[in-house]
Request: fold
Amino acid sequence: VVQHHFIDLVTQQNTMLIGDIWQSIYAFRGAQVDLYVNFYYKHKATILFLDTNFRSAKEIVSMSNNFTTYAEFIPEFLRKDTMHFKTNQGHIDTLVSLGNHEQAQLVVSKIKDILSSGKSVSDIAILSRVNYYLLFLQKELLKNKIPFISKENMVTKEILLVLNFMKLLDKISN
Reply:
């Protein structure tokens, strides 16, 4: 949001927004679909899609495409069908349980299975619909001595400095 206000302050024309609306899964980091939509209408923008995923395996890209087909929060003109570059299949597990504690235990059990098959913790990613659940998972990971990286343990002094500077700019502009 601060970046959006900053761009409005320093530019009047020839403004370009580069990003991926499908990264809105990062809302916990401040990503907002509305910024793309508002930018499109405000600047009468031309959209150029980057529609090849070079990072993820075929199965992951396919599941992502299936999910985004039904994402009601994405306007039709911003929808895209992403192609995969990697030919390996990848693997996705969907786990369902009754409660937060049980789900955390189930996820940790699955992680242990993956690690015992020779994989590394760096081969594992966990996405959650809500941050609240991750508190239960973090407790279970710590209890089982499984290392993890989360938003909270990635914040550095440099990142805090930049965030505070951006907040200051936002206050000045208001």
Observations:
- The mean pLDDT is 77.
- Helices lie at 2-10, 33-43, 58-69, 100-116, 131-143, 157-173.
